[in-house]
Each structure stands twice: as C-alpha cells, then as structure tokens.
Write a structure and sequence with these properties.
Elements: E1 14-18, H1 21-24, H2 37-40, H3 56-70, E2 74-78, H4 81-84, H5 94-109, E3 113-119, H6 125-129, H7 137-153, E4 159-164, H8 166-171, H9 173-176, H10 186-211, E5 216-220, E6 226-228, H11 233-256, H12 261-270, H13 280-286, E7 292-295, E8 300-303, E9 329-331, H14 347-361, E10 365-369, H15 387-406, E11 410-413, E12 435-437, E13 449-451, H16 453-463
Parallel strand pairs: 1-2, 1-11, 2-3, 3-4, 4-5, 6-8, 7-10, 10-11
Antiparallel strand pairs: 8-9, 12-13
This protein binds 6-O-phosphono-beta-D-galactopyranose.
The site of 6-O-phosphono-beta-D-galactopyranose has 16 residues, from loops.
C-alpha cells in the first residue's frame, strides 16, 4: 500500500538497543556465578569464548552512560540465571542480586526504561546435567527464578521478556539448543523441551501478572516472513508449512495457548508429539502476554520439499533455513542481497512481518533485535566508520514507519546490539554495536569503548523521534 503521508513514530517510542548477558558481561565465574550451558560449550575454531566478552560486568556504568548519551529511551538486556542461582535452583546468590540491582539503578537513573529478558540461551549447566528442558523440574526452577526476578527487580522493571528466540533453540537445536544430537529421535526430544519451555513461559506470565499488576510481559521469538520460492502452489504450501512451525507455533502458544493444526499434524506425521500432562493445556490457555517482542534479521524463502536428499541444509547458523523432507526446503531469494555472513537483507520483509504478526494477534509489538554484523575496522584517531550499518538500520526503520502508517501498533525498536559483543557462533570480530569495544578474538587489549559513526547517527535519529533518518 502506498501512503501519501507517513504517520510519525508515537510519542514516548522506545528507541533503544539490545544485548544479552552471556554475550556482553564476561566475569563468567566471578562473585559466585555458576556455569551455564554456554560456558561449557565448544566454540568454533578461531573464535573467542565468552569468559570476558565485553567485560560489561566491570564497565556497566560507563556503558550505560554511553547509551544515555545516545539518548536511549529503553535498554533491553538479559539477566544471567546462573548469577542468581549458580545451580539453577536452590541457594540464591546475593552478589548476583546486587549486580543487577546496581545495573538497573544505573539504567533508571539515566531515565532509560529497562526491558529485561529473563532467559537468553544460557540455561544453568547444573540443570542441563539433570536433563535441562527435557526434565520437568526445569519448569519449576524457572518459576522460582521468575519469582525471584519479580520480587527483587519488579519495583523498577516494568517490561519483561520471557525467553529469547525459543524457536531458534528448537529449530537449530544442535547449534544453540540443549538437546543431545546423538539421541535416537533428537527432534522429538526438542519438541518435548519446547513444550516444557512453553509451560514455563505461561507460568511466568501468570506470575508476573499476579505479583506485578502494572508490569507487562511478552514472549521474544525470532519471527520473519516466509516467502514461497515461486507462485507454484507446492511452494506456497511449503511456505505455509514453514510459517506454521517456525513462527506461529510459538506465538499461537503464547497468545492463544494452543498448538496450531499444521504444527500439530506435523508432530503427528513426524513422530514428534510431546507428552502433555494433565493441567498443561489449562496453564497454557490461562496465560496472556501484554505485547509481542520479536527479533528480525532477514526474511526466509522456501520451496517444496523434493525428498531426494537435498532438502536439508547446514544447521550451524540460526538465521539460515535448514529444510526438512516432506515439509519444506530452504531456497535463495534472487531479489535480495546478502550480508557478509550469507544472511539476506530484506527491509520490506520487515514491514511484511510486522503486518503479519499484528494482523494475527492484534497486540502491541516491539522489535527486540535487528541489525547488521560486520567486520568493523578501528581507524586512526579512534574512528569507526560503519555506513553499511547506518544504511541497514535506516532502511529497516523506514519500513517500520510504513508499517506504523499501515496501522501496526509498534512501541519500540531495540536493535542488536547496543554495544559490540560476542556473536553466537562467529566470535567478536563480527560486530553489531553502535559502540566499538577494543578487543580481538584472543587479545583483550584495553577493552576501550569507542563511539562509531552509527552512534552519532542514531543519537540524532532518537533526538528527532525518528524524523531525521538520513
Ligand atoms: C540472535 C540472538 C542473539 C544474537 C543475534 C545475532 O539469534 O538472539 O543473541 O546472537 O542472533 O546472531 P549472531 O551472533 O549469530 O551473529
């Protein structure tokens, strides 16, 4: 739809940025923190571990003051479950509470709205050793952890995100999930874990509403428009299949508390039907999110499955389509350029995605990740020129404004990432931030913070509430 006049961004729009605990904090075993699955995982050769990361644990004051300088209205970050409960459950670590109290106080003191992700990939390793999300005890541990978060931080935190990209943990289970890929039917196990996570999420949403009547809570999956590779009806069916199991499965459960028919029949066909205990569906149906948060980097394109052995692609990267025989096959979109890491760049797809989600659920939306990973270079005189990042973000923000003009209710944009941090699989040389952190994969250097060109651009954009896009 073409509009003659654009609607402005709403007053009080949450311009901000995002990070996650394990990717930014470092201090992986300090002040009583227990290990998470991330701390115990293997890293791709040539890339750093997450032990020091951007050392935000020791630099948080400086970091928050830089975000304030950019004019941030909101900051989305995650809490490391293992700082609070080193063993996932049991004894609470007061030092963990102290750190997040200090961090939240710092954020609030700068007039920034904290948006807290409760769990961003870093399941406590102690729980993993007891079966992780395959074990229903993890649901109870999450509930206790959620209660601790609401009790301790609920006086200052009004926006909560339950689980980051649960769908990516399931679809890319061997890359970022917590399942043993050597099991006889690892996908069945993943969908069992998925069910448990959904129940845990529903319990957390209910608890939040009981304990903090003024707070808002929502899920934070990765949702993207799925295109058919052609107008062939079989390709369109494949896109419908993939949308149902990649996108709507997660949001239908969070919002309506039910598995959609396509996803459920896919489970039956493939032998992935999860065990559902008495009471689970009631809990799922009783929980209601106040908004939907989602991450968007790229659209995805699929074709009909050929069932000739060519359907399944590689699984190592959470933003590249894998494919599944009889369901869909990943395809390249010839209309889109790719970034340096093979992810297609699709700002118009962002508008499509916003519209699709809003049409289906009619809930306010916030974007909790969007951004461009690149090999930024530090030039003489502490200069980092990243016009490619500005271009990427500008085009996505333009499309977001078009979606708002289309009638979609959007209340915030928190791109990835506020500050340089460690990528999920590609080390720290793949950078996303507005602020450069001076370190290499294996040389920590001085970890100095340097404002990038995009820092100044974003600052101006925020100051004009999105009017100054160029
Ligand atoms: C999302 C994750 C983030 C972040 C981002 C960028 O899937 O929620 O934690 O890592 O992707 O991906 P990457 O780090 O692989 O470049």
């Amino acid at each position: 739809m073409k509009h003659n006049k654009l609607k402005p961004f709403p007053k009080g729009f949450f311009w901000g940025g995002s990070t996650s605990a394990y990717q930014i904090e470092g201090a992986w075993n300090e002040d009583g923190k227990g290990p998470s699955v991330i701390d115990m995982a293997k890293y791709p050769e040539g890339t750093t571990d997450f032990k020091v990361a951007s050392d935000h644990y020791h630099h948080y004051k400086e970091d928050i003051s830089l975000l304030a300088e950019m004019g941030y209205k909101a900051y989305r970050f995650s809490i490391a479950w293992t700082r609070l409960y080193p063993n996932g459950s049991g004894e609470l670590n007061p030092k963990g509470i102290e750190f997040y109290n200090n961090l939240i106080n710092e954020i609030v003191a700068h007039g920034i709205e904290p948006i807290v992700t409760m769990y961003h990939f870093d399941l406590p390793y102690a729980l993993q050793q007891k079966g992780g999300w395959s074990n229903r005890e993890t649901i109870d541990a999450f509930e206790v952890y959620a209660q601790t978060l609401f009790e301790n931080f609920g006086d200052r935190v009004n926006y909560w995100l339950t689980i980051n990209e649960q769908n990516m943990m399931i679809l890319h289970g061997d890359a970022i999930g917590t399942v043993d890929p050597n099991l006889e039917n690892p996908k069945k196990e993943l969908y069992q874990q998925n069910h448990h996570m959904l129940v845990a999420q529903a319990k957390a949403m209910n608890l939040c509403h009981q304990m903090l009547p003024n707070a808002k809570i929502g899920p934070a999956p990765n949702i993207v428009s799925i295109y058919p590779a052609s107008s062939k009806p079989e390709d369109i069916m494949a896109a419908h299949n993939y949308s149902a199991i990649r996108n709507w499965l997660y949001l239908d459960m969070a919002v309506f508390g039910r598995y959609n028919a396509t996803a459920w029949n896919y489970f039956q066909e493939k032998g992935y039907v999860p065990t559902i205990l008495d009471g689970d569906m009631e809990v799922l149906a009783s929980a209601n999110p106040d908004f939907i948060a989602f991450n968007y980097y790229t659209s995805q394109t699929v074709a009909a499955s050929e069932e000739d052995g060519s359907d399944v692609g590689h699984t190592g990267d959470q933003h590249i389509t894998i494919g599944e025989p009889g369901v869909y096959k990943g395809a390249t979109n010839p209309n889109l350029k790719k970034n340096e890491f093979g992810w297609e760049i699709d700002p118009v797809g962002f508008r499509n995605t916003l519209r699709e989600i809003y049409d289906r659920y009619n809930l306010p939306l916030i974007i909790t990740e969007n951004g461009l990973g690149a090999f930024d270079k530090l030039e003489e005189g502490d200069v980092v020129n990243d016009p490619y990042r500005i271009d990427f973000l500008r085009k996505h923000i333009e499309q977001m404004q078009l979606a708002i003009t289309d009638g979609v209710e959007v209340f915030g944009f928190c791109p990835w990432s506020a500050i340089d941090l460690i990528s999920t699989h590609q080390g720290c040389s793949k950078r996303y931030g507005f602020i450069f952190v001076n370190r290499d994969e294996f040389d920590l250097k001085d970890l100095r913070r340097i404002r990038k060109q995009s820092f100044y651009w974003y600052k101006e954009l925020i100051a004009t509430n999105g009017e100054k896009l160029i």
